[in-house]
Structure formats: structure tokens, C-alpha cells
Amino acid sequence: MAKGRLTNVDTRGSPSPSQPIPMDETAPIDESISHTISLISDKKISPSDLRCLAQALAQADEEFYTFNKASFASLSNEEKKEILLSSNYTEGWSKFRTSFFGQYAEELSKLSELSVEDRKKAIVYLFSASRNIAKAINNKFIDPLSLSNNIVLHSYGGSRLASQLFTAVQPAGSYKTMLNLIAQLATDTPKFPLGHIAVAFDNQQIVGRDYRVTLGATQPVSVVTTLIVFAESINHNMQQIPVPTSLNLTTQQQKLTQAFKTQCITAKNIHNKYRTDWIKARLTIAVKESDKSGLDDCAASIKAKTYESGLEYDRVPRMKSSCTITDMENLMMNPNSYDTVIKVLTTITEMSEASDPNRKWITVYCDGQPYNLASKVIDSHELCSTCGASGKNLKCKNLPDHVTRPLFDKIVLRPGAGHMEMNIVRAFFGLFFDVLVKPVAILLGFTTPRALDFCKKALDNHKSWQIMQIIYVSLSDEVIHQFVKFAAGRNIQISDENFTKWINEPRTDNGNTP
Ligand SMILES: [Zn+2]
């Protein structure tokens, strides 16, 4: 669970090549040093002499390699946290450059001759190399920056293998060291942001592959639950006031019924506005086409270069959200069973209460199976405030003095709009396939049984949407063209009001008014 891990990990310490790197001028070289340099470059110093020199340099640089496990373990938790959060790329590099070895490495890679861009890149690699060399010299060396990187990596992925691969090539301490450290430091309860918030959770699946047929084989799958929080920029304090939900239906029924009626009227008004706009647009196009080529010449209409289709297949433009979006830590479980969904809902409730105990409700978005399970759990699970028992059909419910309430009464569950849309499209295709969709699908090239089956199941939401729009436009135009012809013959003004009047007139099977 999230509680066991370090929260609020600060990533300030991550290497960022864009940070300014101080590059001071090369200091004037002392006479004795230039003498030593000339001895080395003239190969007048033997390799064993050089070894002595290196030893002396290592001793002089000792301070740089002394951050070992023993010294780190003796620090207090506060000091450890401070070191991890303040470990900083620029500072680390500056410190390294003042060491003998750092200056040697800098000269070796001819940093001063590189372009600014290349130098930035080279410094990142050089700094990384310096930390690894420190580890090679002092086996117990722990680099705070590597360790905090590993904690961030682990908090996102939760993978032991990933952490071990990381520590195999970096002085980040062992996997166990990191887990112990996290256990020591994770004292804060994870919590949601303050203000008006909504939470969405979903399962993130990584499906593996097994190429052998074996008895009782299962697909290797790794699933985590991702949690995203949307916080409104303005807090209306709405979440401090209880809202009517399915759980308090008896007391709120009248209010809910009224809210539903109002919602129906609003939806109808919005729909009418869009329908009128649509009819107006199609009428304009039909009139233009009838002026140019006559409405019966479909071939000419299609060939026309300035054909105004009115089709908008593009993606919905992304609106700038007024919400701040926070990516919470993943929960290491698959929300596909009652137990795990209860854990997810409990975590959400706890994190909401941890940030604001007065929050009366919180919107939770989820889809598919997690939604079905969660809605059943919310309706059936109770908590006894007397003995603390929780679950379905509580035994203590009939005992005197035991007061129960719905366990998840703070959660207002909602399906995501995207999934609702996909299901509506699928329902439309399933219901009307044979009578309406299939003939269009065949015209559009879904000719083989497999292609038609794919189309009927509406497996590709983008394609299904396009097909639906094509049907919508062509059906509208068929009626609109009839009206334009009808109006032209009778000198009736072409307008959306007259169209509505005409279409609502009772008529016989052959389309004539009786
Ligand atoms: Zn009880």
C-alpha cells in the first residue's frame, strides 16, 4: 500500500543538464606542477611512480568518497531526508570539479574545447562516471542523488527488478537499503490536494507473453491501479455540503427527482439548439447545390471542388483545463475483485479525509469492471460505528446499541465520459446493424464477413464514430433535399421553421400529404 512508501518525493535533485554549470577559469599553473607535467608527458616517470602519484591524489581526494553506508546509517531520519531532498546536480558537479580527480577527468575529456551544447552533455556523463568511480574506490559509497533517483523510480514503477538494475550500475545503495530507508522515512500519510477535487482510477495492464503450451498456463500479467486527482482552481466549498446519492435516496428522493427533471429539460434544450443549427447548415448547403447543378445531379455534387461536407471527423480539440492534475502513487493491485476494489475505495476515502476531514463527498471516476464492482460495494457495504466492524450483511446490525452507516457514503461514483460514449456507439451498432449500418458499411468497403463482424462490434471507436456521422449526414441530406425540392415547387421560404413544420406533417407511405 501507498502508506509503506515514501511520499511527496521531491525530484529537485534529478540531473537536469539545463541547469547552469559554473565553469571558472583555469588557474595559473605552479612551477613544480608544470615540471611534473613535463616529466609525465616526456615519459620520464615510470608507471609505478605514477601509481604512487595516484595514491597520493586519492588520499587528497578522500573526502569526496567518504559518504559511506556506515556514516549514512548513523544520521537521524530528518538529516537523511534533508540530504536526499537537497542533493543537487549542480552542487555535486561543483564539488567534484574541485577534487584532483575531477580536474583530471575534466582535462581528459577536453571539456573546454567542446561547444556549449556538447559540454552540457559531456558533463552529465562525466558526473555520472565520477559517482561510479567513487563507488569503485569505496564499495560502501552511496550517492544521495542516485539514491533519491532510485526512490522516485521505485515509487512510480514499484518494480524490484527495475530498482536492482538501476543499483547494479549506480551507487544508489542496495534494494534492501532503499526499502529500509523508505520504511524509516515514510511517516506522512499520503493525501489528496485540498479544495474541490475529483479522482479517477483505472488499471494499467502490462501483458506478458508465453510462447509455450503448458498445462494450466495463465497469461503473465502485471497490473497496477493508477490514481489521478483533478483539483478545481476555484474551491466552491461544495464538497462540504452533502449531496443526494443512491445511499440517501429515501431522504433525498424528492430533491433527486426534481434534479433529474431539470437535467432532462436542460439536455433537451441543448439538443434542440444543436439540431436547429445542424438543419440550418444543411439547408444552406442544399440550396447552394441546387443553384449550381440541380439537386438530382449527385455525381456533379460529389465532384465539385468546393463541396461543403459539414463533416467534422477531426479529434475534439483539447480544451485548456481549469484543473490541476496530480498523478498519485500507483496502488500495487488489480481492481478486478471485491477485495481489491474495497482496498482502492478505502485508500481514496483515507486520502480524502487526510487532506480535509470536512469533505462530505468526493467524485470518483472509473470504468468497466471496476465500476460494476465499486457500485455494488458502495450499495452493500456498511460500517458499525459501535464495534468498528465493516462489510456486507453485518451480524451486529440487529444487536441493540449498534449503529451502522454505509461504509463508502462519501464516494460519488461516476463512469468516465469516454467509456459511456464507446458503449453508446456499440449499443447503436448492435441494435441497428442489419437495418441501417450494414448497407453503409458495405459501401465503405467492409465487405468480408470478418470485416463486417469487426464493424458490427464497433471495435474501433474512431471508425465507428465516422460511420455514424456518415449515416447521420446522409440521412439528414436525404430529407433536406426532399424539402428543398418541395419548397421550390410551392414557393415556400426555405427555413428551419418551415422544415420542422413540413417534416412533422402527417403523410402517407409514399411521402405525399394526405
Ligand atoms: Zn457493531
List the main descriptive attributes of the protein structure presented here.
single chain; 514 residues; alpha/beta; 5-stranded mixed sheet; 3-stranded antiparallel sheet; 8 strands; extended; binds zinc ion
Structure description:
Among the domains are: 2-22 and 32-185, no CATH class; 323-417, no CATH class; 421-503, no CATH class. The longest helix has 44 residues, at 249-292. Helix 8 (144-157) packs antiparallel against helix 9 and helix 15 packs across helix 17. 52% of the residues lie in helices and 9% in strands. It contains 18 helices and 8 strands. With 514 residues, the chain is α/β, with parallel strands linked by helices. Zinc ion (ZN) is lined by residues 384, 386-387, 389, 396, 402.
- Structural class per helix/strand content? alpha/beta
As a whole number of angstroms, the C-alpha radius of gyration is 35 Å
User: What fraction of the residues are assigned to beta strands by DSSP?
Assistant: 5-15%
Query: What is the strand arrangement across the widest sheet?
Result: 3-2-1-4-8
Largest sheet: 5 strands, mixed
Measure the end-to-end span: 72 Å
How would you describe the shape? Answer: extended
- Number of continuous helical runs: 18
**Element-by-element helix/strand order:** HHHHHHHHHHEEHHEHEHEEEEHHHH
Query: Total strand count, please?
Result: 8
The average pLDDT value, as a whole number, equals 81
Bound small molecules, by name, code or SMILES, are: zinc ion
**Helix residue percentage:** 40-55%
Spans with pLDDT under 50 lasting ≥5 residues? 1-25, 304-308
